[in-house]
Design brief:
The chain has 126 residues and is an all-alpha fold. The protein has a single domain, classed as Cytochrome Bc1 Complex, Chain D, domain 2, CATH 1.10.760. 52% of the residues lie in helices and 0% in strands. It has 4 helices and no strands. α1 packs across α4 and α3 packs across α4. It starts with a helix and ends with a helix.
Length: 126
């Protein structure tokens, strides 16, 4: 009975290992995409890191973005548009939390497909 339990545990672990590796590979790919597209200039992944000269960060941490939009219908499409077209400095819900006034348009730095992929990765962060 013990061996059967151990065999089942090993089987499940071996089946799930590629999924864990796929997530780690995806994380690496998304971080490379974000860096190459200039996103990391203003954004970080984890909350609580200061911006330049100890000021508030320029843009919100992606973990905060994930929390803000978790479960909201249309979040992926909305944020993809924000990445590509920029945001309105007069209606920012990040006001007072970041030092940047608005997000500039980034359509010259990242394709729509890559922006969507990055946004979906950000929304999946814990």
């Amino acid at each position: 009975m013990k061996y059967r339990h151990l065999t089942i545990t090993l089987l499940i672990t071996s089946l799930l290992s590629p999924l864990a590796l796929a997530d780690a590979k995806n994380d690496t790919e998304m971080k490379k995409l974000a860096s190459a597209s200039g996103c990391m200039t203003c954004h970080g992944i984890e909350a609580g890191k200061p911006g330049p000269d100890g000021m508030k960060p320029i843009g919100p941490a992606w973990s905060d973005v994930a929390k803000q939009y978790k479960g909201k219908p249309g979040a992926s499409e909305f944020l993809t548009r924000v990445v590509l077209e920029g945001s309105n400095p007069y209606s920012s819900h990040w006001k007072g939390k970041v030092s940047g006034l608005s997000m500039p348009p980034n359509a010259v730095a990242i394709t729509e497909g890559n922006a969507r992929q990055l946004v979906n990765w950000i929304l999946a962060l814990n």
